[in-house]
Structures are given as structure tokens and as C-alpha cells.
UniProtKB/TrEMBL annotation:
<dbReference type="InterPro" id="IPR014729">
    <property type="entry name" value="Rossmann-like_a/b/a_fold"/>
</dbReference>
<protein>
    <recommendedName>
        <fullName>Pantetheine-phosphate adenylyltransferase family protein</fullName>
    </recommendedName>
</protein>
<dbReference type="GO" id="GO:0004140">
    <property type="term" value="F:dephospho-CoA kinase activity"/>
</dbReference>
<feature type="region of interest" description="Disordered">
    <location>
        <begin position="383"/>
        <end position="414"/>
    </location>
</feature>
<dbReference type="GO" id="GO:0015937">
    <property type="term" value="P:coenzyme A biosynthetic process"/>
</dbReference>
<feature type="compositionally biased region" description="Polar residues">
    <location>
        <begin position="385"/>
        <end position="401"/>
    </location>
</feature>
Length: 414
């Protein structure tokens, strides 16, 4: 689907979030980011499309990367994934409290949110003759100039009414100049949260930096892809060590997607998506983090996927990143059949599975995988509801989404 055949209401919208509080916590993130997130999500939810969800990309400007040269950037994975978890938790609470669906294949009135970390330093200044372009580095995080070059056109652009928000908005518009003709009605200012004085980090006191990995893997069902899945996938992608764009090498992100046979006993199993739909959704979501082209979405909103039975693949950034979704029929998947893997991403729920994987690899005489655990979408400190954790979990899980669809079908048949 090319831009000529994409309606404006099918385009994604952008919310520009200025720098997070430092030091950060769930409470401070909620104070800073909840008002603009509520405003953008509620606005898009009210603009019901004829089919499918509205799409919102939340770009969070933060000095994520460190390193003097483009080819040698590093990041602190614990800090980066914690920031993502905090924002996705706010998104989930907002949508749960307002009864707005968040899954990638939602119905009209739902909002499909993706969070993108954008490397930007408030002290950076661009000369009047600066011309932004694609400057990919050895991570999946891009700087603000590259983001402005590769992410366009937009349905709406939401900016935060605050000094840092206005500063970011004006810098972004300058870098994005000429990419899209924007009408006044497409530019929507929203209220910011609690104003924070962001302290610049002392470069001599940086947190430990995480070395990227050539092959990263994780697993899950990924039924009706929701914020918990998006956090896990994004955190995994942050671990990739991306080769230079002119390199003949590539890094690989292997995602084990549970086969249909193992899901037959799930609650509301008749509403479980088939494996192909779940694998396709994973790659479509990751494409939002990985595709870089000066044409933006002019060649279409969805990536080209090589689809074989139980094995879907797509390549990004001139072939330097390969995403592979494989069908798995047990708790181990390719982690015990393919030796050439480096890192395993787990959640709190799958921590024991990570230990079991490494036990099996050691039994086979293989090196254990380095295990990275992603934070949970904890809402105890940021939700207005009582019994927050139970209520929250019951509203955003795949089983809850299937239940809602079952109820909607029953109501339609009455």
C-alpha cells in the first residue's frame, strides 16, 4: 500500500515527549507524562476510523546513547528498558481506565501505541545549513535528525505545552521541514505534566553500558499484541548489536511464537489468533522501530515479510537487521536447537524458563545465554483504582482481550 492509497486517517500520529525526569521513577514519570499521554490517546480514540485502530507513535527525547563516533554508540539497557516500562505502564493505565483498547489489531476507537526512544541532548545545536539525513548507528535507537528524516508523514503531531516541550517541538519541526505539508489543524498542543528540572548527567558517572549482541532471542504467545508484548519486543531489540550499514554482516532477532496446538486450552481459545497473524503482528510492530528510509511511509505502512510455514522473516536497514519469527511447540524453541545465540530476554513470569534453557544448553556442552529480565508493567503507584494490580492485569492480558471479543460477538448475536 503506497501513500497514494493510504487515507489520512490511516496514518500514524506523533506525540513528542520531552526529556524524562532525572533521576527517574514510576511516580515521577507518571507526573510528567500522564497528562500528554491521556490527551493524545483520548483525542485519537474519539476520531473513530472506518476500520481498525488509530496509531500513535510516542517519541521520547532523551540522551540515551553515549560514545563519540556513530559506529561505537552504547546505552544502558537497564535504564532504557525501565523508561520504556514506565511509559507503557502509563499508556496501559490510561487506556484501562478509559476503556480504550490498545492491541495492534484493535477495532475502531482503539489506539495502537508504540514507544520509540529518540537520542537527543538539549545542549545540541544545529547550524542553519544543517541538512538532516539517515545516520544509523550500531543500535536501534536513532537521533532526532534521523527520526525526523525517516518517520513521516503524520496524521497529527501532538506537542507538550512546556518550555522543554516547545523547545523540542520547534527543533523537530526545523529538522522535519520539507517532509510533509502540515495544516494548522494537524498540530495539536497538549498540556504537560509536572515540570521537572532535568539535571545533565556527569559523563564520568554514567551507568554501566550494555554491550550489544549479534543474536538475541525471546519467546511468547503474542496473541492480540498489547503493551506488555510491545515492551518485551522493544527491550529485546535494544540489545541488538547492529552492523554498519555498509557491512555484509547482520544481527538477528529470533522470536519464538507459540504454535496453535499449545493454545487450544486457553480461555476463549476460539478467539486466539492463528500463528501466522501473531507472527505477522510481531514483525509489523518491530518495523516501527527498525525501518529507516528518507521516503518514510511513502512505500507503505507494512514491511515485506518472507512467509514460510512456521518461519516468517523480514530484513531492515539494508539487511543489517533480520527479524525471524519461528513456531515453537515447547518451552525451549530454537534456544536448544541452535547453538549460535547470545542473549535471552525474559519477563518476571518467564524467569524460570530462562534458567531451564541455560541448564539444557550447558548439558549439551553449549555456552549459556546471557539473560536479561524486562521490568513488569507495574501500576500500583500510578493507578487511581483500588486493588490496582489485580484490576490492571485483568484488563490488559491477551485472555482479557479475547473475553472482550467473545462478549462483543455474543452481544451482536442477541
Amino acid at each position: 500500500m503506497t501513500l497514494n492509497t493510504i487515507r489520512r486517517d490511516e496514518l500514524p500520529s506523533l506525540l513528542l515527549l520531552p526529556f524524562p525526569p532525572s533521576p527517574s521513577s514510576r511516580v515521577l514519570l507518571n507526573a510528567a507524562y500522564r497528562p500528554p499521554l491521556e490527551a493524545a490517546i483520548s483525542t485519537l480514540s474519539s476520531f473513530k476510523k472506518t476500520d481498525g485502530p488509530a496509531r500513535l507513535i510516542v517519541a521520547v527525547a532523551s540522551p540515551v546513547l553515549h560514545g563519540q563516533f556513530v559506529r561505537s554508540k552504547t546505552l544502558s539497557w537497564p535504564d532504557a528498558q525501565a523508561l520504556l516500562a514506565g511509559i507503557y505502564a502509563i499508556v496501559s493505565v490510561v487506556c484501562a481506565e478509559r476503556k480504550i483498547a490498545t492491541e495492534i489489531d484493535g477495532s475502531p476507537g482503539s489506539v495502537d501505541v508504540s514507544v520509540v526512544l529518540v537520542d537527543h541532548d538539549r545542549k545540541r545545536r544545529f547550524s542553519p545549513d544543517f541538512r538532516p539525513g539517515i545516520e544509523a548507528n550500531n543500535t536501534i535507537v536513532v537521533d532526532l535528525a534521523t527520526f525526523a528524516t525517516a518517520y513521516h508523514p503524520w496524521r497529527y503531531i501532538f506537542s507538550v505545552r512546556s518550555e522543554p516541550g516547545l523547545e523540542l517541538y520547534q527543533t523537530y519541526l526545523k529538522l522535519a521541514e520539507g517532509r510533509q505539508t502540515l495544516l494548522h489543524e494537524q498540530l495539536i498542543p497538549v498540556e504537560g505534566g509536572l515540570a521537572m528540572n532535568v539535571a545533565q548527567k556527569d559523563s564520568s558517572a554514567l551507568p554501566s553500558q550494555t554491550h550489544g549482541c549479534p543474536v538475541v532471542c525471546l519467546g511468547g504467545t503474542f496473541d492480540h499484541l498489547h503493551p506488555g508484548h510491545k515492551l518485551l519486543l522493544t527491550a529485546g531489540a535494544l540489545l541488538l548489536q547492529v552492523p554498519h550499514k555498509d557491512s555484509a554482516q547482520s544481527c538477528r532477532f529470533v522470536i519464538g511464537v507459540t504454535g496453535d496446538e499449545l493454545l487450544k486450552n486457553k480461555k476463549f481459545a476460539e478467539f486466539v489468533q492463528p500463528w501466522e497473524a501473531r507472527a505477522r503482528a510481531v514483525i509489523v510492530f518491530l518495523s516501527r522501530l527498525l525501518q529507516l528510509s528518507t521516503r518514510g511511509w511513502r512505500d507503505g505502512l507494512e514491511p515485506e515479510i518472507e512467509e514460510n510455514d512456521g518461519d516468517f522473516r523480514a530484513s531492515f536497514r539494508r539487511g543489517t537487521i533480520t527479524i525471524q519469527c519461528v513456531r515453537i511447540q515447547d518451552a525451549f524453541g530454537p534456544t536448544i536447537t541452535v547453538e549460535n545465540m547470545d542473549a535471552l530476554v525474559v519477563s518476571g513470569e518467564t524467569r524460570s524458563g530462562g534458567r531451564a534453557v541455560n541448564d539444557r544448553r550447558v548439558e549439551q556442552g553449549w555456552q549459556p545465554l546471557e539473560v536479561f529480565e524486562v521490568d513488569v508493567l507495574d501500576t500500583e503507584e500510578i493507578s487511581d483504582e483500588t486493588n490496582q494490580s489485580d484490576n490492571f492485569a485483568s484488563k490488559i492480558s491477551s485472555s482479557a482481550i479475547r473475553k472482550q471479543r467473545a462478549q462483543a460477538k455474543a452481544a451482536a448475536e442477541d
